[in-house]
Design goal:
Helix content of chain A: 25-40%
Radius of gyration of chain A: 23 Å
Number of domains of chain B: 1
Mean pLDDT of chain A: 82
Oligomer: heterodimer
Shape of chain A: globular
Number of helices of chain B: 4
Strand order of the largest sheet of chain A: 1-2-3
Order of helices and strands of chain B: HHEHEEEEHE
Distance between the termini of chain A: 56 Å
Number of helices of chain A: 8
Structural class of chain B: alpha/beta
Largest interface: A-B, 26 and 26 residues
Strand order of the largest sheet of chain B: 1-4-3-2
Helix content of chain B: 10-25%
CATH architecture of chain B: 2-Layer Sandwich
Chain lengths: 268, 189
């Protein structure tokens, strides 16, 4: 690889541009990832900020938020996917032409986030559609979304034309749209994400791993651990542990104050 | 600016609509407690996050019988002039077996809200609907039905509003399972 890169650099000096079909295709796809104009909750506000002048998603060729899934390459699942919204998200994803990518933005879209124990939020969009890049955060900063986009571009660069699905004669993959059941979301009449429980199906793996169900289901008897439930934690009261939070201990919350010299500004 | 205290409201209800008020325990005892605290010094004061058992059903607001709610609401609107029904919500007192409906009325001339409460048994929560007088009550009553299972008689379209129609259960009730996997065995897996 490095070999032909040197040849190419040498050739470019003489006005000849050499590339491979694969690199050319990948370059084309990675340079204009058009996201679907689609937001679900507060993460969408950060997504909008990313698209605007200050953070400027246009630097990556991804500023064209398309209002139609038929014209979009990337679905940024920005926000809490409620169980009632989940079928629509899957349907939008099915309507996107391949190649298509998914960024799961924020804690809610990735795992249900703070609403995971609740009754109305899907416990991760990857239960229904495969996700390329996950972003942690609640909500993630625009920089995090930019980093996710760069990560996605790197993943696209690594794709091989003879292995991806959409250039062969293979059919586009349809993902089953969940339906509403008595106790939660169902696929083909089988409960997949019950209200008041854990998901009964495993998440999809990322496209580079084959877009299949990973087979890893969270065990229902798994006791989750919270520091306040730990018997070794010394408590001040039933709801408060002793001591202070590490951020405060390291004085991490304080930003340096900005001093403005008004007299100086006036003189100017 | 119109301003009517809960005590004044109760007094007028007792005078003009005899028999609408439900007998309730008042919260006056807790206020004398806090006075005793001020006198007694800081040693008796509970630590932050620790509370003595609270009587949840004790309230100073007017609690009316559910079957006479419409009558009271009309009285509040026509006689007292509190025309805006701003808020309808339900509270689940699991330990006491009571669901309490709370209604906030506002006067268009400003001032604080007038609170009317009504209590129904948890296993048979039936409250008359206010949609005839206030069409805006429609969605809020549907919300209380959806999340708490309160049935409003006379409501024109009492269906679920947040959850899907096929859903079973009342998710905002205190005994609704959280991570409890109540349905895990039912799924047929």
């Amino acid at each position: 690889m490095s070999d032909d890169r040197e040849i190419q650099l040498e050739a470019e000096k003489h006005g000849i541009f050499l590339t491979t079909m694969q690199r050319f295709y990948n370059w084309g796809r990675r340079s204009s990832i058009w996201p679907l104009s689609f937001g679900l909750a507060c993460c969408a506000i950060e997504m909008m900020a990313t698209g605007l002048a200050r953070f400027d998603l246009a630097r990556f060729g991804a500023e064209m938020f398309r209002a139609s899934p038929r014209q979009a390459d990337l679905m940024i699942v920005a926000g809490t996917v409620t169980k009632k919204m989940a079928p629509q998200v899957v349907r939008l994803y099915n309507q996107m032409p391949e190649p298509r990518y998914v960024i799961s933005m924020g804690a809610c879209a990735t795992s249900g986030g703070p609403f995971r124990d609740g009754y109305n939020v899907l416990r991760g969009i990857d239960l229904l559609i495969p996700v390329d890049v996950y972003i942690p955060g609640c909500p993630p900063r625009p920089e995090a979304l930019l980093h996710a986009l760069m990560t996605l571009q790197k993943q696209i660069d690594a794709q091989r034309l003879n292995q991806v699905r959409w250039y062969g004669k293979r059919e586009a993959k349809e993902y089953p749209v969940p339906t509403f059941g008595k106790h939660g979301l169902e696929i083909d009449g089988k409960l997949i994400d019950p209200v008041g429980g854990l998901p009964l199906v495993s998440p999809y793996t990322s496209p580079s791993q084959g877009e299949t169900r990973s087979g890893m289901i969270e065990h229902p008897e798994l006791v989750r651990h919270f520091p306040i439930m730990d018997e070794t934690v010394e408590r001040e009261s039933p709801y408060k542990a002793t001591g202070i939070a590490p951020e405060i201990a390291y004085n991490d919350l304080k930003r340096p104050a900005v001093e403005v010299n008004h007299a100086e500004n006036e003189r100017r | 600016m119109p301003k009517m205290s809960a005590a004044e409201l109760k007094e007028r209800l007792a005078r003009d609509l005899p028999g609408v008020l439900m007998p309730t325990r008042t919260r006056t005892q807790t206020s004398s407690d806090s006075e005793a605290l001020v006198d007694g010094g800081k040693a008796a004061r509970p630590k932050r996050g620790e509370h003595a058992p609270v009587d949840l059903l004790a309230t100073d607001d007017a609690v009316v019988y559910p079957e006479r709610l419409q009558e009271v609401a009309r009285y509040v609107r026509d006689v007292l002039g509190y025309e805006l029904l701003s808020n309808i919500t339900a509270v689940d007192y699991l330990a006491d077996g009571v669901i309490e409906m709370v209604y906030h009325f506002f006067h268009l001339g400003g001032g604080p809200a007038l609170v009317i409460k009504t209590r129904v048994p948890r296993d048979h929560p039936v409250v008359p609907s206010l949609t005839n007088e206030w069409p805006g009550a429609n969605l809020q009553e549907r919300e209380a039905f959806d999340l708490f299972g309160v049935v409003f008689t006379g409501h024109p379209n009492l269906t679920r509003i947040y959850m899907w129609d096929e859903f079973e259960g009342w998710p905002m009730r205190k005994d609704f399972p959280k991570q409890g996997d109540k349905y895990f065995g039912d799924s047929g897996e």
